[in-house]
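Mods, move this if it's the wrong board.
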Amino acid sequence: MPGLLRGVARTAVIAGTASAVSGRVQRRQQGRWAEQDAQRAQAAGYPPQYAQPQYPQPQYAPAPEAPTGGETDPTIAQLRQLAELRDQGVLTDAEFAAQKARILGG
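Not the wrong board. Structure tokens:
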């Protein structure tokens, strides 16, 4: 069984390397072809903006804004502070749970 796994792993490595090399060759060829197209367009007398297509930048909808005006509920503010402390590694999960129960329990 270890021989089979070794063979499968070797095949995966070879296939991954081949894919990476193939992708790199393809990108290099596309770059060369784009360069040749630009040179041909320039030689034919086309203005530079026609040498390569210019695509407009996509327009995205603005992100929804978070409610402003501060925290109206001090409980939510305390829970957020506790969560930040837990995320920073200051509090353990058990300490966070105990403090959360204390805040919510009153």
